[in-house]
Amino acid sequence: MVATAMVGKKGDKGIVMEGPLANWYAKNTANNLSDFHADAGRIANCLTAGARVLEVAPGPGYLSIALAQLGPYQVTGLDISHSFVRIARTNATNAGVVVDFRHGDASDMPFAADTFDLIVCRAAFKNFADPIGALREMHRVLRAGGEALIIDMRRDATNAAIDESVTAMKLSRLDSLITSFIFRHTLRPRAYTTADFQRMAATTPFGGCQVSEDPLGLEIRLRK
Ligand SMILES: C[S@@+](CC[C@H](N)C(=O)[O-])C[C@H]1O[C@@H](n2cnc3c(N)ncnc32)[C@H](O)[C@@H]1O
């Protein structure tokens, strides 16, 4: 059952997070939601009431939910994992907020052109099987003047930066070891550098991007 649930499929570069793996991620991530609340606060500062926001690959939905708690925004989430769509819907109901969590692929979005004011994608872009397709879709579904914000790990993150981030997650000893291993050996090799993002963005209708760096990650801003 686990093996079947974890077989990769179109859209995700590696293992699709279904079943027990999705539950494990949702439970561990919930240990420390401070980064989600901080990101939601920064994003909300740029939004007006009624803004239409899309989170691409929200997983358990913590960022979308934190954002919906901050103001009257129309928040939508799109994830390729059926398990995460179910978990995120339950989390939204439990939090008492309305977020439209949908199933779908970042590189083939089920939305009309020019729909969203802002798109955010956190800790997920490196997993996309078709990253340039995902950027093209972000451009298509953004309204003119809208912005996409991608927050993700950087490929040149050091082991020390990874260890510091895992410590901040406040996990059990075993989960810390597993998470650190996954960061070093699965996620970092899939991640991109600033130069990679600049090259990818240049091949899309965005034409380019602005990148800011911290020791573990990158923030990429793309304007339509
Ligand atoms: C590590 S989780 C991050 C979840 C969430 N953004 C967070 O910060 O907790 C990566 C997410 O990317 C999703 N994903 C991977 N490939 C995808 C694709 N092609 N389209 C949509 N979602 C995708 C996975 O299902 C998973 O929810």
Brief overview, please?
The chain has 224 residues and is an alpha/beta fold. The chain has 9 helices and 7 strands; from the N terminus they run H-H-H-E-H-E-H-E-E-H-E-H-H-H-E-E.
Folded structure, characterized:
This protein is α/β, with parallel strands linked by helices. The chain has one domain (2-223): 3-Layer(aba) Sandwich (Rossmann fold). Helix content is 44%, strand content 20%. The protein is built from 9 helices and 7 strands. The chain has a 7-stranded mixed β-sheet, sandwiched between helices. α3 packs across α4 and α7 (159-168) packs across α8. The protein is globular and about 45 Å long. The chain binds S-adenosylmethionine. S-adenosylmethionine binds next to β2.
